[in-house]
Amino acid sequence: METQTIAAKRDEIATPARRAFPYHVLEKPGDNLVDRFLEAFAWVLEYTDYKPLLDSYCRSTAKCNRCAVACPILLASGDPRDIPCYRTNLLLDTYRRYFTMGGWVKARFTTPFELTEELLYEMGDVFYRCTVCRRCTRSCPLGFDHGLITRLGRYLLSLVGIVPKALQVSVQEQLEGETHNTSKVSRAGLLDVLSFLSEEMEESLGVKLDFPTDETDRDYVFFCAVSDYLMEPDTLMGNAAVLYAAGDWDRWTIGLCNYDGINYGLFYSDWHLEQIIKRLVAEVDRLKGRSVLIGECGHASRAAHDFIPTFMGQRAPPVRNFMEYTLDCLRAGKISLDPDVVTERVTYHDPCNLARSGWIVDQPREILRSFCRDYVDMTPKGADNYCCGGGGGLVSIDELHDFRMEIAGKVKAEQIARTGADIVVAPCANCKKQLKELVEHYEIPCTVVGLHDLVLRAIEIPGGKSPVERRAEAALFAI
Amino acid sequence: MEKVQLGGKDIEIDEDGFIQDPDAWDESVARDLAKTEGVDDMTDEHWKVVNYLREYYLEYNMAPMIRKVCKTTGFKLKEIYDLFPSGPAKGACKVAGLPKPTGCV
Question: What is the CATH number of domain A336-478?
Answer without folding.
Answer: 3.40.50
